[in-house]
Specification:
eight-stranded parallel beta barrel; alpha/beta; TIM Barrel; 10 strands; globular
């Protein structure tokens, strides 16, 4: 397992991070989730990502329990704040000072930890002054409850505005967590150049486009039983945008490229996002321990330029590049 620096900081993280969105506390049983976490540790992953809103707090609880007994200093644990949690009252969402302060305390309680390594704004909050949000994050850092601050799905201008205020408050935003894959490249035109300028790394989610780039979904055929596309608890909705037959047909053109490189298609997809030097780590989840062992083999893989070009040709017009699709909700969802 290889490590990369997170933004312009001294923090090193594994270039593959284990994430538990849509799985822990929701899609799979807790004992299986714990087995996946232990498989990640066995494979050399030391970086874990979760959020308070995942399964309304249950995902943090499962992760915290699974990591219990591990040397805390040898782990990098990330969580997030923004989306509704708890009974979903008017102050149970967003990036107000109240919600951030209560959010970090709730996350630490569920994780059974004294601090998190990275605390992230899960989206941009258009309804709270940015100055209030940044000052609250500064106070979280000063209190020792989070070592670093990141964001998720912020636009280039939001990153610039946030970083300017963060530096005035005595800290720096070190990361952004966007969706990024060979099929979804909306950060490349604006977010990545701004991030390089600002010293911010990408912590990318869905490098396999919700599993579509693994090649297991075939055009004109029903989704495999038990796959994300059949999960009515949330997975089905998140993957729907990639399930068009023309997209699935193009994805199958990647199979011979993966075969040439001695990779599974899932490993090719992860290696592809890691080829972007602004990406610090790729988030991968799992519903079975063996999936973790398979995914970590993408660490350290270098895809030759010829194959990178052929990937572009294979996916063609199915690739989404519109930078306007990097955005946060205009109003909070309560």
């Amino acid at each position: 397992m290889e490590y990369r620096y997170l933004g312009r900081s001294g923090l090193k993280i594994t270039e593959i991070t284990y994430g538990n969105w849509l799985t822990h506390g929701s899609q799979i049983e807790n004992d299986v989730a714990a087995s996946c976490v232990h498989a990640a540790l066995d494979a050399g992953i030391s970086t874990f990502d979760t959020a308070d809103a995942y399964a309304n707090g249950a995902a943090e609880e499962v992760l915290g329990t699974a990591l219990k007994g591990q040397r805390r200093e040898s782990l990098e644990v990330f969580t997030k704040v923004y989306w509704p949690v708890g009974p979903k009252g008017p102050n149970d969402t967003g990036l107000s000072r109240k919600h951030i302060m209560e959010g970090i305390n709730g996350s630490l309680r569920r994780l059974q930890m004294d601090y998190v390594d990275l605390y992230q704004a899960h989206r941009y909050d258009h309804e709270t002054p940015l100055e209030e949000t940044i000052q609250a994050f500064a106070d979280v850092v000063r209190a020792g409850k989070a070592l670093y601050i990141g964001v998720s799905e912020w636009s280039a201008q939001q990153l610039r505005d946030g970083q300017a205020l963060a530096k005035e408050a005595g800290f720096a935003i070190v990361s952004n967590q966007p969706q990024y894959s060979a099929l979804w490249r909306v950060i490349e035109a604006e977010v990545v150049p701004a991030s390089k300028e600002l010293g911010i790394s990408q912590v990318v989610w869905s490098p396999m486009a919700q599993g579509v780039l693994s090649g297991k979904y075939l055009p004109g055929q029903p989704a495999p039983e038990g796959s994300r596309a059949t999960d009515e608890k949330g997975g089905q909705n998140t993957i729907s945008g990639f399930m068009a037959d023309d997209v699935l047909t193009r994805v199958q053109k990647l199979r011979p490229i993966a075969d040439e490189l001695g990779l599974k298609m899932s490993q090719l997809a992860i290696a592809w996002v890691l080829a972007n030097p602004n990406v610090a780590t790729a988030l991968v989840g799992a519903s079975r321990p063996e999936q973790v062992a398979e995914n970590v083999r993408a660490s350290g893989v270098k895809i030759p330029a010829e194959q990178m070009s052929r990937i572009d040709d294979a996916l063609g017009t199915s690739v989404e590049r519109d930078p306007a699709k990097t955005q946060s909700p205009g109003t909070r969802v309560a």
